[in-house]
Amino acid sequence: MTTTMASRMSDQNDNPTPAQSRRGRRTALVLFAIGFGPIILATAMFYTGWLNPTGHTNNGTLIQPVVAVSTLNLETLSGDPLEARFGIDQADPQWLMIVAAEECGQECEHMLYLARQVNIALGKNASHVARAAVLGSVSEDLSARWEQEYRSMERLVPVLGTMPSWPAGMDISAEPRLLLVDPFGNVMMHYGPHNTGKEMLKDLNHLLRISQAG
C-alpha cells in the first residue's frame, strides 16, 4: 500500500459519514436529555404547576423572568467567574443558595444559619445544593467564627471594577436575601428574613424530587 493510499484511507476514517454524524447528534441529545431534561422539567413545573399532583405552591418569591447568574457580576475569591460552574457541560450539576447582604448583622447571620441547616436537612440530596455568601461588612465576631460554623459556605465578591447587580425588587441594603440558582445558572427565586427554614426546605425538596436530582 502506498503512502498516498494510506493517507486517503486515514482521511476517510477521520471524516464521519452523514449517518455517523446523525447518530452522534442523537447520542448527544439523549445524553443531554438524561442529564438536564429533568431539571428543565422541574423548573417548568415549579413555575407553572404543570403535571404537579401535589398542588405545590412555592414559598419563595419567583423571579420572572429568570435572571442569568452572569448578570450578578460575582466571582470567587480566586477570581473565577461564578457563571463558569453552571451549564450543560457540568458533570455534577448543582443548585446554589446565595446569601446576600450589604451589612451582615443579626438578620443576615440568621439567613446564613438557615442556609446551612436547610442544606444539612436535605440529607442524601445535600450534595446537589451548594452554598455561598456575598457580604459587604462582617463583624469581627462572625469573622472569628466563620471557619468553624460556615466553612462550607463559599465567599463570593464583585468582579473587579463592578458592583453586584441584583434582580429587580431586591434591596440587600434594606434586608438580606437568599437567592436560589438552578444548575443552568438561572437566578429563579429569592427569600427574605420572613421566610422560615421549613419553607425553603419544602421548595428545595420539591425541586430536587421532580428533577430526579437525588
Description:
This protein is α/β, with parallel strands linked by helices. The protein folds into 2 domains: 3-45, no CATH class; 58-210, Glutaredoxin, CATH 3.40.30. It is 39% helix and 22% strand. It has 5 helices and 7 strands, in the order ααβββαβαβββα. Helix 2 (18-48) packs antiparallel against helix 5 and helix 3 (106-121) runs parallel beside helix 5. It starts with a helix and ends with a helix.
Give a nutshell description of this structure:
The protein is α/β, with parallel strands linked by helices and 214 residues long. It contains five helices and seven strands, in the order ααβββαβαβββα.
Order of helices and strands: HHEEEHEHEEEH
First CA to last CA: what distance?
Answer: 56 Å
Strand content: 15-25%
Named CATH architecture of the largest domain:
3-Layer(aba) Sandwich
Domain unit count: 2
Which range best describes the helical content: under 10%, 10-25%, 25-40%, 40-55%, 55-70% or over 70%? 25-40%
* Global structural class: alpha/beta
List the helices and strands and how they pair.
Elements: H1 3-14, H2 18-48, E1 61-68, E2 74-76, E3 95-104, H3 106-121, E4 129-138, H4 140-149, E5 154-158, E6 177-181, E7 186-191, H5 197-210
Parallel strand pairs: 3-4, 4-5
Antiparallel strand pairs: 1-7, 2-5, 3-6, 6-7
List its salient traits.
single chain, 214 residues, alpha/beta, Glutaredoxin, 2 domains, seven-stranded mixed β-sheet
